[in-house]
Amino acid sequence: MNDSYRILKKMKEKKQQRFAMATIIAVDGSTYRHPGAKMLIGEDDSQYGTISAGCLEEDLAYHAREIINHRQPKTVIYDLRSEDDLSWGQGAGCNGSIRVYVEPNEWEYIPPDHHQPIWPEVESVLNNGSKVASAKRVSDDDAQRVHLFYTDNGAVLGDAETGLKEKIIPELKRFLISGRKIELIRLADVEGEFLLELYEPREQLYIFGAGPDVEPIARLASHLDFFVTIIDPKTSRCNAEIFPTADQLIPEHPETYLQKNNIPQTSYVLIMTHSFQRDQTILRDLIASPPQYLGVLGPRLRTTRLMAPDALPDWVHSPIGLSIGAEGPEEISVSIMAELLKIKNKK
């Protein structure tokens, strides 16, 4: 799950509302969600996202109301290992403790020493396909808040005093290269801990074909935070009425689209046109410049024939989807998205 994308999307939808944003910053033992998981609690008590299986959210909502009203962040620690009600009031009997940082937030949030809302800037960078690393001081004193952002193309968003900025920027560069999603650090001669977080753009999924079997895949992929692009020449199918959750609908012949556009190497591609010649053209084009995932609908024998007399590379997924005995478009869509998540999460 791309929690950061979901949080930004919800704050943008509710521009006039104030929120408390909760982030798991540390875990000791086994817990439902990992460090970096986020949820948003609105001033109207609405909740978006989750940081547990439901056993923490009610208590967290109580803290959120206080944080929204007083505009002061705080750190809350939940010890879920106790089986009685003396630890924090619930006695969940799980196998870990969770440290949660809760801070006031909103779409028009302006970081200290910055002069305009930061989240629209971050969203713009993410929409352009770049990553953003963020550094904030974990403090219960709002006056000590520091929030800097560094993009993978070298831009700095937000501001801080010169000496502190010079210490944070190298850490953000290192963090971006590390591939980690979250990290707590201390800086020499600087008070407090700093939370480093990675904000990533959504994974791009290109689907060649707009048949009925694509509909549940597009819905599920959008729900799982993929940026979905559907390419098909039939305007009667490739339209917003049939694919309301798709981010891009391109009513072009695949070969025409591929002549004018490059498929990013970090993207995921499904070939589902149900046309042998069209599948053959798309597959041969993408073999030359492979994306992160390339899957072809249909049995392996058919996909092998698409490449004949050349050999089909082992990394081409065909048939697509995990082998879970799926039947029908809905179940098959689950198997396909499970395989994409397996690749994305490197599991």
Global mean pLDDT: 89
CATH superfamily of the largest domain: NAD(P)-binding Rossmann-like Domain
Task: Tell me the number of helical segments per DSSP (H or I, 4 or more residues long).
Answer: 9
Shape: elongated
| Major β-sheet profile | 5 strands, antiparallel
DSSP strand count: 15
Strand fraction: 25-35%
H-E order = HEEEHEEHEEEHEEEHEEHEHEHH
Structural class: alpha/beta
Query: Which spans of ≥5 residues are poorly predicted at pLDDT below 50?
Result: 85-93
Distance between the termini: 14 Å
Rg over C-alpha atoms, rounded to the nearest angstrom:
23 Å
How many structural domains does the protein architecture include? 3
Provide the CATH architecture of the largest domain: 3-Layer(aba) Sandwich
CATH topology of the largest domain: Rossmann fold
Supply the CATH class of the largest domain. Alpha Beta
| Helix percentage range | 25-40%
Please give the order of strands in the largest beta sheet.
3-2-1-5-4
Could you walk me through the main structural features you see in this protein, from its secondary elements to its overall organization?
The chain is α/β, with parallel strands linked by helices and 347 residues long. The protein folds into 3 domains: 1-106, no CATH class; 108-201, no CATH class; 203-344, NAD(P)-binding Rossmann-like Domain (Rossmann fold), CATH 3.40.50. 31% of the residues lie in helices and 25% in strands. It has 9 helices and 15 strands. It has a 5-stranded antiparallel sheet with strand order 3-2-1-5-4. A 5-stranded antiparallel sheet has the order 8-7-6-10-9, sandwiched between helices. A 5-stranded parallel sheet has the order 13-12-11-14-15, sandwiched between helices. α7 (276-288) links the parallel β14 and β15. The longest helix has 17 residues, at 162-178. The protein is elongated, with a radius of gyration of 23 Å. The two termini are 14 Å apart. The relative contact order is 0.09.
